[in-house]
Amino acid sequence: MGKTIRLTMGQALLKFLDNQYIEADGEEIKFVHGVFGIFGHGVVVGLGEALAAKDNKLPFYQAKNEQGAGHAAMGFAKQNNRRRIMAVCSSIGPGALNMVTAAGTSTANHIPVLFLPSDTFACRQPDPVLQQVEIPADYTITASDAFRAVSRYFDRVQRPEQLMTAMINAFRVLTDPADTGAVTVSLPQDVQGEAYDYPEEFLAKRVHHIERRIPSGGQIERAAAMIRAAKKPLVICGGGVRYSGAGAALEKFCAAGNIPFAETQGGKGTILWDNPYNLSGIGTTGGLAANRLAKEADLIIAAGTRLGDFTTCSKWLFQNPECRILGINAASFDAYKMNGEPVIADAKFTLEALIPVLSGYSSSWGGKIQEVRSEWKAEVDRLYSEDALPTPDGKPLLSQARVLGELNDRLLPRDAVVVSGSGSIPSDMQRVWRTRAPGTYHMEYAFSCMGYEVAAALGVKIACPEKEVVAIIGDGAYTMLHTELLTAVQEGRKIIVVVLDNAGFHCIDNLQNSQGIVHFGNEWKTRDEKSGRLEGAPVPVDYAKNGESWGALGLRARTVEELGKAVGEALAARGPVVIDVKVGAKTMTHGYESWWRVGTAQVSANPDVEKAAKDMAAEVARARKY
Q1: CA dist 263 to 125, 223, 277, 307, 481, Å?
Q2: pLDDT tens string 237-288
Q3: Is 598 in contact with 617 (CB distance < 8 Å)?
Q4: Do residues 186 and 89 lie in contact, with contact meaning Cβ atoms separated by under 8 Å?
Q5: With the CA atoms of 433, 436, 439 and 445 taken in that order, what torsion angle do they form, in degrees rounded to the nearest 10?
């Protein structure tokens, strides 16, 4: 038998985490960077004791909200292209449940985060304990079971020796490009402090090899045959292209065959905006160039994308009846979507293998690619130069698109990392943001989780301390969750938070009104005494002053000149900054020949709603059924 060392489960867990490495493409990388968390009675004397010990080498980041901790960890891992991760710990009950949303966000986006919620006593002697949820029909269920629905792997360590199999399986999933996402290992509060003689072998340095799945000869032959048979193929560049480092291969592939590509939120920025085959965003939040060609395409090469409904316009976008799907994905679950011909393999290796096999092939797009690119560039230039809007009080308000244009074209460094994640801002940015340096477009949109932005920006800054990190966020998302701004102040991590204040949830208000429903419940308005509805006076908010209250520098802008001055001050500042930018309520970009299926009421006293339902049904009939 090998040597052992007597440790508590919490101590052994940290030693294990600190010795995990990955090897990818010949490079060895320390995988676990640190631990985010908030201490409570269920964690502070167990895992917390190990974190507080002088021999612990993993940095501990004190979060202010457990969901924010999870988003920060996800932002860190995403910015590192999934090659470095963070763990997140919490107390039991509400602290644990606060992380469930973050776990769902991680899993939906295929981003590895290790969640370590504390749990009730495994021994059940103190029973029920403070913050325990009791389920009379099944006493084995605790609050932590809520993670099962949103985790790629779930385990509960009810004895200290179970830690070994739990963590080996946890890292099996965390390091799997096809299966990664949230991994949850629930830690009962008594077991965290229980001692066991752990084998030194378990605690020794372990290297997890990230192997690229090589496409078979048959897969390449079938894929090549589909491409050769196509006259108008179109590539969708998804997040899998970014994470596999397949950008250069995709550039060569498209140039060799005169094949255009469009970007998902996850794939955007993998190849820079001015590449001659880059059509920019596709789908419901896409632009004119990509959506027009997608309707004509007879082959969609879905590379590293999960084909979400925003990308496919709820399966409506690909309107050519001859259009087929070729799914290139490390995850078989995604490769098969929309009745696709699956190539279950690494995107980089697959594209590289296809280039020589397709020698001599050229699509029939001809000059149309450049034609639609030029038309779209002119439209984006127009949006970027929109004048400020007049308001009843005579004070101008910027358009949201103009603010993005000023930030993108003139004010921010080319290598600044921009972060966003929900509402109309990601829609606008997928369409119009011109990515000028690799790895600078950071968007969470698979879960469209409001409140991701500020916390994720902190995670990105930890990942890239040398870069300016700018969270571009709507006032609705800012009010949801911005408390990690205090953590950024505490850590001395400079992030710039640009709040585009249009006084409400106007992205949803647009959707509501587009389906014939009156403006209701989405604007920052007081309750009217006569009607009893939220349609009274506007509620003004000073987000700069809110930032100042957390210890950040607060700045304000209503005009182009004020915006330029504020951004200049922010770039010169040493600590976190909040810029409050007032924008017009309906000044975001809108759909460019796109559609989205929503559950519009089929029967209503409002004739506008019934008309919207009929229009929706007509478009549903045009969408693919699989």
Answers
A1: 55, 21, 11, 11, 28
A2: 999 999 999 999 999 999 999 999 999 999 999 999 999 999 999 999 999 9
A3: no
A4: no
A5: 10
Rounded to 5°, angle at Cα 46 from 42 and 50 = 140
Report angle CA 21, 78, 547 to the nearest 5 degrees: 125
Look at the block and give the residue holding tokens 């509960």: 156
* φ, ψ at 289 (rounded to 5°): -65, -55
The torsion angles phi and psi of 105, rounded to 5 degrees, stand at: -65, -45
Q: Are strands 182-188 and 113-119 parallel, antiparallel or unpaired?
A: parallel
Domains of the chain, CATH where assigned: 4-209 (3.40.50.970), 217-374 (3.40.50.1220), 385-503+540-582 (3.40.50.970)
Residues 6+ apart with CB under 8 A from 595: 284, 313, 314, 316, 317, 619
Q: What phi, psi does 12 have (nearest 5°)? A: -65, -40
> In the structure encoding, which two tokens stand for residue 265, read together?
């939120």
Summarize pLDDT for 94-120 with one digit per residue, the tens. Answer: 999 999 999 999 999 999 999 999 999
**pLDDT at residue 511, rounded to an integer:** 83
| DSSP alpha helix (H) spans, 407-505 | 424-432, 452-463, 475-480, 484-491
Long-range Cβ contacts of 603-607 (<8 Å, 24+ apart):
604/516, 606/516, 606/517, 606/518, 607/516
Model pTM score: 0.97
Q: Is the peptide bond before 128 cis (omega within 30 degrees of 0)?
A: yes
- The reported pLDDT for the residue numbered 1 is 61
3-state secondary structure 437-457: CCCCEEECCCCCCCCHHHHHH
Find out whether 350 and 343 touch, Cβ atoms under 8 Å: yes
For residue 571, which amino acid is it? L
The span from the CA of 2 to the CA of 411, in Å, is 60
162-171 per-position pLDDT tens digit: 999 999 999 9
| CA 407 – CA 410 distance, rounded (Å) | 6
Distance (Å, whole) CA 281 – CA 289? 9
